[in-house]
């Protein structure tokens, strides 16, 4: 079994190849070609932590993956990062372990950011006049970096609750070449951007229907578990195109679940991302529609990114 | 994160300490103090393989464990062992990975064999006149080895379907000091032994009620998944004491499930192993009772054996 560190993984991977592997994975998932056992969750109450184990295999492919990811939210006070994790790649022909990817959670972050790029490529309006980001953390940064490949727009409005975090994000985005406006008023994001990504762990709606410009696309990646919400249900209900990574999962949590439970939208109007990417369903039809993508994260992304990371590391580091 | 090989793990562990850790684990499990998320299963049809991921945390303890175990039944033809696997131990305080135990399935085998020793210690008749083993594989060997610590009886009857495998087992058991009878007729095991362990992947009953001597204790470890069965339902129904490692799991599969579904026994008569080990329930009451233990394997065993293996390796190999 090969063992690769985060540094080795980051150095070996090419983002456009990784994105294509994710596209293939979403399509296989929506075609019912992926074995996805139930997610395992732990709650470590006293330590303010949690862990989830996600596993997947695309039927017929050579490898399957088991991912362990942890979040311990008191870690920063101990000088440790909140998130950690690793992925194991095993042979689907013999069961033997092939690679341990000690990515410390990076592969989960990048597969989520690339999914944001993938849905924006499919759903964003033709002319992007401004990018809006809600949140200032690692995912807020990675989403912005991955959007740069699909648009030359360098106007950014970023929302956060914390002034210092906003200033730090401004420095980051400026260094990427963005003209940056920071704000603690989410309405300003909606007023200045028609491509918005929400990346927060919020438990109450941050964006309201009335603020959104016609033609805007919104990708929501923050609500990855029960109780989380970033978008007002009326905004969800008014979106003309709603894409989700997994209908089965988004029924249970994520932005969509709230509107579904209140009867404001019907399951039949949901489009699974894999159908859209396979060209089996139409997405945006004009520049006036509001489109929405709700990404809760599916294990097939982990399987695809891990398989590619292993391959990329083996090619970049043949001596290991 | 420390990485330990099977050889290092086998060399570092003391079986009596490991057994005590399992006892503690069974008790914690039966007291409802263990988080056990649903088992993840994969089926690799074409490759004739499967994989299961079992995870557990005893609430309040310092570590939790994720175990991956695989069985690929065409592997021997490729010169590879059928079973492989590893366990990961992570901190329940910070989420950081602590150890990767590359045990290749050995820890699962030994925790199962030790569970056999533990139930035999609790339920076997006072005088063991003969030991019987059904099966000739790895688990059949490890069960016998672990029983040696609790009885001086060295009379063994072993059943198998394959003559060569029986002869190989005879050689193994003779080297341990046993007087060995091999047979392809399971009735002979029942006639000559009052402590029997069944270790096969059989899908039909191998032992019948009429053959069993009064006072016999039977431990069944083979039926670890749907469709498997080693004991006739009438034998199960007539046992005066029935102990299971997990009532919840044994309702779904294992020996007990068949008799339960046919209404031959009631769930109320089942004794969970942790209650017995904690002294909260009586087990065998006299030397005439037939007692039965159905062990389907619970993830708390993995958590306990992995935590101990990591500790033992750290003590035995401080320089690593």
From TrEMBL, chains A, B:
SUPFAM superfamilies linked to this entry: NAD(P)-binding Rossmann-fold domains
Entries under Gene3D superfamilies matching the protein: NAD(P)-binding Rossmann-like Domain (3.40.50.720), ornithine cyclodeaminase, domain 1 (3.30.1780.10)
Name this protein carries in UniProt: Ornithine cyclodeaminase family protein
